[in-house]
Amino acid sequence: MNLLKLLFSAVIVLIVLISSLSQFGCDIKEPTAPEWDITGNLPIINRYYFIYDMLKNSTNTHYDSVNSNVILTGTTATTDLFSDIKSDGVGQSFYNVPTNLSHDTTIFIYFDDSTQASFISFLSGELILKFQGAALNSYTVNLSLENMRSRNDTTLKYTNTVQVPANTQKQISIPLFNWVYKSNGGVSNIIALKLRTTSSTAEIATLSSEVTPYTVERIIGRIKPTYIARELSRTDSPFGTDVPEGFINFASVDEDYTYITLKRYENNYQLDFEQVSIQGINKNGNKVNLRYNPGGNPTINDTLFNLSLDQGSDSSNFYLTNLNSNVAEFIGNLPKDIYVAKTILINKPYSNGSINYLDSFSTNTNFSVPINMYITQTNSVIQDDTADFGISDEDQRKKIQNCQSMDIELIMTNAIALFAISKIDVLDSFNVPLFSLSRMLGNPSDSTISVSRAPVDINGFVNGISLQTYRTTVPKEIIDKILRAGKVVYVTKFYTDQNPTSYIRVVKNDYARLLGIGKVIYRIKED
Amino acid sequence: MEKHFTILLFIFMVFISDSFAQYQFTVRNYSMGRASTAAAYSIDAIGFNPANIINQRSIDTSIVDFSLGINLGIMLDAEFAPLNLLDQYFTKNADGTKKYLDTDDKNDIIEQVGNTPINSIGNIKPISVVVRTIDGTFGFGVEERVGGHFYFDKDFLEVAFFGNEVNRRYDFSELDFNTSWTRQISFSYARKIDIKNNKNFKYINLGASFKPQLGFYYSEIINNDLSVFTNDSNQISGSGKMTLLYSGISSERKLEPPVNNAGFGVGFDIGLSTTLEDFFNLGKLNLGFSVTDIGYINWKTNAANYYYDGSFLITDITKKEQLDSLEDVINGTRSPIESFSRMLPTTVRIGAQYKYYSNKQMSEGKVHSEDMELMSFALDYIQGFTDNYGGTTTPIVAIGYEINPINELSGRLGIVAGGREKFELSFGLGLNAGPFSMDFGTYNILSVLAPKKTKNFSLGLNMNFKI
Fold first, then answer.
1. d(Cα A270, Cα A345) in Å, to the nearest integer?
2. 3-state SS of A343-404?
3. Are the beta carbons of B288 and B349 closer than 8 angstroms?
4. Cβ within 8 Å of B, A 115-144
5. Residues in A touching B106 (Cβ below 8 Å)
6. ipTM of the assembly?
7. Average pLDDT, whole number, for chain A?
8. Are A373 and A367 in contact (CB under 8 A)?
9. Which of A471, B103, B272, B407 has the greatest number of C-beta atoms within 10 Å?
10. pLDDT for res A24
11. pLDDT tens digit string along B262-273?
12. How many residue contacts between A and B have a Cβ separation below 8 Å?
């Protein structure tokens, strides 16, 4: 091997290698993680307060005044359909018919013993005609049912031709669903069967008619008083599902706003709600049956009562008072679920009217309870809760220090017709106050923030919301205090107008909300 | 300390990586555009074409070739210039302070890195040996392979660099990665079979490798539809889920020294090569064919699916239970599985190499000579059959050129088209000092000339010894 060549080669390789590596050496520096800021949009606070928070937690609330300007209102509603309007039909009737009738002869068939109608459409049932064969010869029957019209075209009558062999019974079954009943004028319960017979001999044959039990889709006329099946239904709770456990002793109810409403849709027969039972079950499982006796002094026998919706009325209210019911006890049970059972009797007076099986009716209850909360600003309903906010992990505590700044916007939303003030304090784990967030937000002397009550309409119902927004920038020294934070204490007080000019209503969906949103600038860096 | 470790691990995984079969590592291979199926010889042929371990340069007569310690390469394939990015944002300022990324910096990083694949390959061959005997040629090699494929979607990076915007949904479903760390042990054998009565082809080399595979770490996202939304009340809700498949020598997904293996498998290479001794009276034409990495790895140790149920709702950060639920999401649920298998990235290679000699005797069939093997041209077609372990099914065409102006010095150039990198120019140098040789090269010439500008970075260095 030529040493010179080798040296020459080595020099070239080393020059290229060293220059390349030096290029690398110049270009590649020690990797070091940079720092940068990210903006975290965080939900700082999200607290809802409902009326039951007050009922549950406040010791200042009383329910024994009928002169209060605060009324607790609840409603229930249930809607039912007349899905099952039934008739028992008509049993078999027999007619003797000559087998050689050259002229049209009419036989009257009764489709019901007492219902009379100008129009009926059916959901089920059959009209059955049976032709008994003659003794000697067969015969042919040409028939039409004058009052049974095609469902699709009421000008078309039902017609048929039946060949009846000798000594043989021939039956035709007519599904009522395909046909409607149309009277010749006014109301009637007769179907006119017009027939003509042909035979080589004149004999007498027997024809029978029968209407099986049927259900009605729509009827115009006078139906016989008809019961529909007794139903048990659970209604939505009057005060929401978030009711507290236990019992509240209400002294009275607002009689103008406490009632049962019966309401009809479309149908116009008198509706009698018989054997009505309304039972409320609270969160503890305690059951209270509503007693109602319009004559007053309800007894235990009045847990089943009757209500009626007259033919001429679309709805009726049955007011519940302390005299005619135990409604205060019923509401005081704070029912979470209410079960309503009733039997409906349609057209008890046997009058003309109309009904469709899809027509509906409803049973609503409306409860209003005046409550006196004794809620002045100095003696208010206090809602307080504490969130454990301690950061136990040492690494996480250190990371808090990377927080550069924090902008907090707190929005107080009030959909309760009560004034609200809030105080938000941050404490360490030994309950030593670190700072007051509400003071930073509102900068008031008492460290609170407040929002006005929600507006109400003339009936006292909330018809809008009140909003109040507070903003602050949390300084670095306060952010550093978060390291020692152990708890966040929220205290919210609700109180009424000091000089109320009208009453207000508090309903189950009324709420107040503390929403705090934060924009946190956080430095990402290697610790 | 943990952060240091994480950064180091990240750099390790991204910049020093993998096992991709189409990217089998030798420095000479890198330098010649990876056209090596016919052109590789001796210990460089391990992994490419086991039949070629018989071959050696015409000036060499060694019985034993080996490399010890220094035989390593790295390759990084991205659509941005990684070293430039590293230098621009992930190094210190001139005054020694840490860099602070402003909005433009962050946008630039997201624009460069977001929604682009990053593939990294790193190989270290601590030992490779070829021994020639009268009963054939035996090869042995150990190769450490670490690598990964990463895809950072822009939404993910935007949250990481800017935080969460209000009224915006961040879709992380395209976030993807798979990584592996394996060790391949190759036992190769090749034998020359003489062909009688054929004046064109006088012999054929047949070779095969048996390659036990030891797996240390494997992780892969197998499904992911995570998203996060912040509403106008700053309430943050997550949805979707992600499943991460993992096996490793550590149950806690922390890096530990590879003492024991987590997965085990076997692989095989087969190959053949032959030479047309007189190629139009201009030189020799070597032909090669090989199928490599036929096999699988069965991952067993700590094998588990990690389920991340991304359903969470944070409405109030002072509520501990909400933060706890978020922590549960981050920690995921580990569901052990018995094992799972992944096929090795089987690859077919077909190659040819034309050698031109300055000494006519060489072209006439003399086996060894001091005379120069002046230059050679090589052409390879490489076809992968799976994307596992970073492989690609996109075919690669490689053209290599080697010139030996003197026996002691080799210059190499190459062009590679296809595969993950699409198009690259490669370059390298070799020094042959008889019992010792050294190769230095890159498959992307910009890696050397302007490393900060290159999107596909690679560099390799090896030292071989001959006895």
1. 8
2. EEEECCCCCCEEEECCCEEEEEEEEEEEEECCCCCCCCEEEEEEEECCCCCHHHHHHHCCEE
3. yes
4. none
5. 36
6. 0.73
7. 81
8. no
9. B407
10. 57
11. 999 999 999 999
12. 148
